[in-house]
User: Which sequence fits this backbone?
């Protein structure tokens, strides 16, 4: 497992836990995009990883249906 893979997995876990990016309702994703990227940046993730995780589709992330 490379450091980039570990960072990507950690970022995916963070957005799932906080319900950011693909875990937000589809109609709210664009509105919150910059804030979600900033949240990942504050956690120390690179911009490239943040964009990859935030712009992923829920199917790519394995997002569960939210109630």
Assistant:
């Amino acid at each position: 497992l490379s450091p980039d893979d570990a960072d990507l997995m950690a970022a995916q876990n963070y957005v799932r836990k906080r319900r950011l990016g693909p875990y937000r309702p589809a109609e709210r994703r664009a509105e919150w995009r910059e804030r979600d990227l900033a949240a990942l940046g504050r956690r120390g993730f690179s911009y490239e990883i943040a964009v990859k995780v935030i712009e992923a589709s829920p199917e790519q992330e394995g997002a569960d249906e939210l109630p």
Remarks:
- The CA atoms of residues 2 and 8 lie 10 Å apart.
